[in-house]
Amino acid sequence: MARALASATAEGTLGRAVLVSAVRLVVGYAIALATGVPLGLVLARVPAIKRALGPLLLGLSSVPSICWLPLAIVWFGLSEAAIQVVIVLGAALPVTLATESAVRHLPPTIERAARTMGAAGPTLLFRVLLAAALPGILTGAKMGWTFALRSLMAGELLFVSGGLGQLLETGRDLADTALVLGVVVVIVALSRASERVLFGPVERVVARRWGTAAS
Amino acid sequence: MFATTKKWIGATAVAEPELASAPAARSVARPPTRAPAGASAALEGVTLAYDGGAAVLEDVSLDVAPGEALCLVGPSGGGKSTILNLLAGLVKPTRGRVLFDGAPVTGPGPERAVVFQDAALFPWLTLEKNVAFPLEVAGVAPAERAERVDELLRLVHLSRFRGAFPHELSGGMRQRGAIARALATRPRMILFDEPFAALDGQMRELLQGEVERIVRASRTTMVFVTHAIDEAVRLGDRVVLIGTRPGRVIGEVHVDLPRPRRAAFGGARADAGGASLEDVQAVRIAQRIASEIRVEVDKVAREEADGAWGSSSGPDGGDPRRHLGRGI
């Protein structure tokens, strides 16, 4: 296995694959966060939208995001955009639902106190509610990251596009078990490392402020 | 709205820059023109019912004079806090009017500050930033803001803890922080919603003294909700008794005791040679209030015990309100 990884590294295929996958992941995840958090906030604050979209989103969240790949391929062809659609759909839903839940379950005195101090509109929304919901949003964001990674791997396995998924496919085609297992190890390592880099600092801030134990 | 607030705070800052020296200020003659004193407030025939449910408040009328310290006492669940929320503008009456300074209350605003039972400091901000928050919202300039925060933290003796997050503070410190935050915009009325209910007895007495000192020094109007009669007698110029289910005014007692007042049972100290006349008066007033609300307290206990409370409660079932009549 180590030998398989070493030779893949030496050929440069592993490095390229990691880079391609990482870029896709980061772009898709950024889009997912940018849509999921505001959507969750809106859902938590506007009952009409919550009634209209809530059940739909809950239902959709049970659909594995890779199920969207055929539709994405029909719309966007075998392109980068198709894979992005899968990543965004996979990651945005947990982020949305976690944000919605975090904002909705805030202690009511937080908002009341803010309003008696004159906070309203964007100040109330962003400086109070979103700030207060940070621990819950963080949980959703971490879940979203894992979902994004899973969606990405599934997407890459299903169509030839560079990236770690394709390297896995290559391993399968060559019946190279060592390479397949090696790539899995790389995925685990990347996921752990990226979580630490991305969420570690935010988690420490939350732990310090809210007095919760750092994980 | 922000623009008005800003202007108003600016004006106040000029007129009354000396809040920090409150303890000393009592003996110092203040200039005669000192705006803005506490504002008046009133409930006029207010009824409140949530979506077709039973009335929480029924035909409540209440006047608060400018600068007055009014305490609302009554059994829990009796709508005392609802009256506070109405005054704060967080809840709108189903019928009747809520007035502040003669004008109808349309929503919450920084001229009516609230101190909540759980302090409600923002957990993601340090104490200092919590106290600064209302000033920031009001658009106060950073330099002035910092100065005001210093002043407020000194006033509540928390300067040392300015950088602490709320979870690092004790319950009493959190409440003092909440009081500092409430005072930040120099409100013309402060509403206290059972702020010391979760504190131990000694801390409560200490903070009652602080509230008496601070609120009197700032001369704002105060409405203080509590279920502790001794607390009401210590802090209130007037105590209004609130009955329950539906919430309504069942009586009022004036407390004509000199200030600063002593803690409820502090009178029996050996060095003072036993209870003073004032202590005796305070106890009498407290007893009078207790007997006036006993019927209401019994009613709540009976309802919560599902009719199993006491032996003379009559036949089971039926509306206890009908058996007891309304009020006293």
**Biggest interface in this structure?**
A-B, 21 and 29 residues
Secondary structure class of chain B reads alpha/beta
Oligomer: heterodimer
**Strand count of chain A:** 0
Determine the N-to-C terminus distance of chain B: 44 Å
CATH topology of chain A: MetI-like fold
By CATH reckoning, the class of the domain at 48-111 and 189-279 in chain B would read: Alpha Beta
What's the overall geometry of chain A? elongated
Radius of gyration of chain A: 20 Å
Largest sheet of chain B: 6 strands, mixed
CATH homology superfamily of chain A? MetI-like
Cα Rg of chain B: 21 Å
The assigned CATH architecture of the domain at 48-111 and 189-279 in chain B is 3-Layer(aba) Sandwich
Count of helical segments of chain B?
10
The N- to C-terminal Cα distance of chain A equals: 32 Å
- CATH architectural name of chain A: Orthogonal Bundle
What's the average pLDDT of chain B? 75
Count helical runs of chain A.
10
Q: What ranges of chain B have pLDDT less than 50 throughout 5 or more consecutive residues?
A: 1-35, 266-271, 311-315
Structure explained in plain terms:
The complex is a heterodimer of chains A (215) and B (328). By secondary structure, chain A is mainly α. Chain A has one domain: MetI-like fold. Helices cover 85% and strands 0% of the residues of chain A. Chain A contains ten helices and no strands. Chain A has helices at 2-11, 13-45, 47-61, 69-76, 80-104, 108-116, 121-132, 134-158, 163-173, 177-210. In chain A, helix 5 packs antiparallel against helix 8. The two termini of chain A are 32 Å apart. With 328 residues, chain B is an alpha/beta fold. Among the domains of chain B are: 48-111 and 189-279, P-loop containing nucleotide triphosphate hydrolases (Rossmann fold); 118-186, no CATH class. In chain B, 38% of the residues lie in helices and 18% in strands. Chain B has ten helices and ten strands. Chain B has a six-stranded mixed sheet, with helices on both faces. In chain B, a hairpin with a 2-residue loop joins strand 4 and strand 5 (103-104). In chain B, helix 4 (127-137) packs parallel to helix 6, helix 5 crosses helix 6 (171-183) and helix 8 crosses helix 9. The longest helix of chain B has 28 residues, at 277-304. Chain B is globular and about 55 Å long. Residues 1-35, 266-271 and 311-315 of chain B have low confidence and may be disordered. Chain A binds chain B through residues 107, 109-110, 112-120, 123, 128, 131-132, 134, 208-211, and chain B through 1-2, 5, 85, 88-90, 107-110, 112-114, 116, 118, 120, 122-124, 133-134, 137-138, 165, 167-168, 181, 185.
